[in-house]
Design goal:
single chain, 66% helix, globular
């Protein structure tokens, strides 16, 4: 059931092969493991997306694509999962990362005040950048640590959820037979 729903959302690999712009990746982009839907590849893609979602700026999807191709996990899931970070969630995530960095590094200073948001997108982005830069070393340590923790938790959450769904389907099938 999950696989059928996800297959409807995935792009057709044959149509992607026809795209000339994607030719620069060669056959690496069309490896079957990147498009296959199973517990391992979807969980791996989810973990790659969670990890790369904390990469600053517009490099998230590129990092997720490279990570998915390198680890041979589901590429569309990795790309879609990076979308959990956005202007509304990045500040709380970076505060959590800062707190993790503070726990790991002894004797760090307290966090500066959160950035101010306005209707002007450029001013808001400048405020976030200035704020993130003022967080210093605890943030630099905390972001990869938080990314690794999220990836670890996400991988096992998908594996466990998918396994529970399969067991439930097996039990329902067994109950219908008897």
């Amino acid at each position: 059931m999950i696989r059928r729903r996800l297959n409807k959302l995935l792009p057709d690999v044959a149509k992607l092969r026809e795209q000339k712009a994607l030719g620069i990746f060669g056959e690496h982009l069309f490896h079957p493991a990147l498009w296959h839907l199973n517990r391992r590849s979807v969980a791996g893609g989810f973990a790659v997306g969670l990890f790369c979602g904390l990469i600053p700026g517009p490099l998230q999807m590129g990092g997720a694509a490279i990570g998915a191709m390198w680890l041979r996990t589901n590429l569309p899931v990795a790309l879609a999962t990076t979308l959990y970070t956005n202007p509304f969630t990045i500040v709380p995530l970076y505060l959590i990362a800062y707190q993790l960095g503070m726990m790991v590094l002894p004797g760090s200073a307290p966090a500066p005040a959160a950035p101010v948001f306005s209707a002007d997108v450029v001013a808001s982005l400048a405020s976030i950048t200035t704020w993130a830069g003022s967080l210093g070393t605890p943030l630099l340590v905390g972001v990869p640590l938080l990314a690794a923790l999220l990836a670890f938790a996400g991988y096992f959450a998908v594996r466990i959820t998918w396994g529970l769904y399969l067991r439930l389907a097996w039990w329902q099938r067994r109950a219908r037979r008897t």
